Amino acid sequence: MRVISLHKNYVRLIGKAKKGNRKAQHELFELFAPKMMSVCRQYLKKEELAEEVMLNGFFKVFTRLDSFKNEGSFEGWIRRIMVNESISQLRREKKLDFNQDATIENSMDHVAYIETELEVEDIQKMIDALPDGYKTVFVLYAVEGYKHSEIAELLHISESTSKTQLFKARKMLQKAVAQQNNRLSYGTH
């Protein structure tokens, strides 16, 4: 029953927001802003820039509410807008640079598992340290759940480039995790 009433509440809020009701728009913003800030932050290293992109994303959400037909997840619809806004920001900054000729050296390394005792903040710092192209593909694939074909279309790259970027991102993360685990084992920070 709770899920149904929550869904009805969203539908009601969305309906009011579509009609320009500022209070309903504010409620939707308050409900989704924390999650959407997290989405933008996954792609953008600077928190201030991630917040700016999120706000621009919400502007698009509210100006395009009529295109949401109450089919599928409203949160998923907003999330796609935030991902697209984040990628557009990276493009504007010319931070998405992909080496189209790269190939995966050893496909067995591609599926390696990272085991660690690191905190979420440490892992986020490691992800932030990745080159923007690697980071974007990694987040789209590992966090957002996009397929390589979808990433290729979204970023205007080939599927093999997407796979290569993911492979290299994972390899860099594995190395960073191993180094951090070694530091923790030896008591140095």
Q: How would you characterize the overall build of this protein?
A:
It is a single chain. Helix 1 (2-18) crosses helix 2 (22-43) and helix 2 (22-43) packs across helix 4. The chain has helices at 2-18, 22-43, 47-63, 74-92, 120-129, 132-143, 148-155, 159-185. The protein is mainly α. The chain is built from eight helices and no strands.
Roughly how many Å is the radius of gyration? 19 Å
Q: Percent of residues in helical segments? A: 55-70%
The helix tally amounts to 8
**Total beta strands:** 0
Could you outline the blueprint of secondary structure elements for this entry?
Blueprint: H1 2-18, H2 22-43, H3 47-63, H4 74-92, H5 120-129, H6 132-143, H7 148-155, H8 159-185
Helix pairs in contact: 1-2, 2-3, 2-4, 3-4, 6-8, 7-8
Brief summary of the model shown:
This protein has 189 residues and is an all-alpha fold.
What key phrases describe this protein's structure?
single chain; 189 residues; mainly alpha; 8 helices; disordered N terminus
